[in-house]
Write a structure and sequence with these properties.
Elements lengths: L2 H4 L7 E5 L12 H23 L1 H8 L3 H28 L5 H17 L4 H28 L5 H30 L8 H20 L1 H4 L4 E5 L4 H37 L3 H29 L1 H10 L2 H6 L5 H15 L2 H12 L4 H29 L2 H8 L24 E2 L2 E2 L6
Antiparallel strand pairs: 1-2, 3-4
GO cellular component, one term: plasma membrane
GO molecular function, one term: transmembrane transporter activity
Protein name: FSR family fosmidomycin resistance protein-like MFS transporter
């Protein structure tokens, strides 16, 4: 568990939270704010996914090995993973209304560098800027989604997440339609979407600054965590193990899927990009389902099904023909992607009052595992084959068995107060 996460609790498992954050009554979700933040998540992650979608082009342009391809993913995801918990921890106590447009500006800078990169080193620098943008965007936007949830935390996180997954799915489609025929410099046109994102996020920042929790005085109160410190640390460790399983596998599938299709089935680059879109779009749809179901039946069943339940499909994938490869990847995307919203909300309820830090920790760890997975699996692909890599990672979802160690239900805190518009006793992880 991250040191910043353990710092959120004292020796007795008590966390310091804002009095105002525990007394805001339940309301309807702020749909306009949720729609705006989800749309901007789509823009942000679309620009990230353009890097993934450009791998075949960059590989040919700069004569890159699979290790170098993995290093690109590692650079932007590791940058994000290291900074996100720190950004979240800082903004938990010092909300920054202009942090989101600043983060989008960093992503725009990375996009422009990518469009005109003359060398592999500049490509890595561009990836780093995209990672910095994400490290700022995700913790703060996740907090805003929770503030706008009206107490429906799983639903709000799903709405927020589906924007990101939709953007990730759009990247390969747009790359096939624009970047493949017009070349690397055509990436610059997507900067217009980033400029629009900056304008929208300025408006979201104004709403954020006037929200009662953020705009009022920030007196501290002590609110008991739902479990003793050791139990919370153990539960967070289990959740991080599940994130490792999910994102290490997803890194292998998303980073090398186009190469796998080209190598095994002789596809063109554009057709392979379309198949990557099918997988990523299925992941976006799966995200919509996970949060609301977790609100209704509890987070733990969703986590069980989405991680462990996908194992039979991942183990069949390396042995399938083209039709079943496409079908299985769609099923894998649908099922596996439903986990993250449930995991994130579960963690937020384990450590009340630290929404930014927890969001940063889990988004950052997810990005880091994705980057590390891409680099490690790229090395294995160079030394063996992509087909062997897919056979090896097929067993990762079996780590979902560790979900049995999670506490069955997050109990209400001793204070009995509400957090973020919903009573702790009403949650059902």
């Amino acid at each position: 568990m991250s040191p910043s996460a353990t710092a959120a609790l004292d020796a007795d498992g008590v966390s310091a939270v804002d009095v105002d954050a525990t007394t805001v009554p339940s309301t309807k979700p702020a749909f306009r704010v949720l729609g705006a933040i989800s749309s901007m998540h789509m823009v942000n992650d679309m620009m990230q996914s353009l890097i993934l979608a450009m791998y075949p082009i960059l590989k040919g342009e700069f004569s890159l090995s699979f290790v170098q391809i993995g290093l690109i993913t590692l650079t932007y995801q590791l940058t994000a993973s290291l900074l996100q918990p720190l950004v979240g921890l800082f903004t938990d106590s010092r909300p920054q209304r202009y942090s989101l447009p600043f983060g989008m500006t960093c992503t725009l800078t990375g996009l422009m560098l990518l469009a005109f990169a003359p060398s592999f080193a500049v490509v890595l620098l561009a990836a780093a800027f995209v990672g910095i943008g994400s490290s700022i965007f995700h913790p703060e936007s996740s907090r805003i989604a929770r503030l706008a949830s009206g107490g429906q935390h799983g639903y709000a996180q799903s709405v927020f997440q589906v924007g990101g997954n939709a953007g990730t799915a759009l990247g390969p489609l747009l790359a096939a339609a624009v970047i493949v025929p017009f070349g690397q410099r055509s990436v610059a046109w997507f900067g217009l979407a980033a400029l629009l994102g900056i304008v929208v996020l300025l408006q979201v920042g104004r709403w954020y600054a006037t929200h009662p929790i953020v705009g009022a005085g920030r007196t501290k109160a002590l609110v008991a965590a739902p479990y003793p410190r050791k139990v919370v640390i153990g539960a967070v460790a289990v959740l991080l193990a599940l994130i490792f399983s999910k994102y290490f596998y997803m890194a292998g599938l998303s980073s090398f899927y186009t190469f796998y299709l080209i190598e095994r089935f002789g596809m063109t680059v554009q057709n392979a990009q379309l198949h990557l879109f099918y997988f990523l779009f299925a992941s976006a749809v799966g995200t919509v389902v996970g949060g609301p179901i977790g609100d209704r039946i509890g987070r733990k069943p969703v986590i069980w099904v989405s991680i462990l339940g996908v194992a039979p499909f991942t183990m069949l994938l390396p042995h399938a023909d083209l039709f079943w490869t496409t079908t299985l990847t769609i099923v894998i995307g649908l099922v596996l992607s439903s986990a993250f919203s449930a995991i994130l909300v579960y963690a937020q309820e384990l450590i009340p009052g630290k929404v930014g830090m927890v969001s940063g920790l889990f988004f950052g760890f997810a990005f880091g595992m994705g980057g590390l997975g891409a680099a490690v699996l790229g090395l294995f692909a160079d030394r063996t084959s992509i087909a062997f890599v897919y056979q090896a990672i097929a067993y990762l979802p079996l780590l979902g068995l560790v979900a049995i160690l999670l506490p069955r239900k997050v109990r209400a805190s001793a204070s009995g107060r509400q957090e973020g518009g919903v009573r702790a006793s009403s949650t059902r992880p």
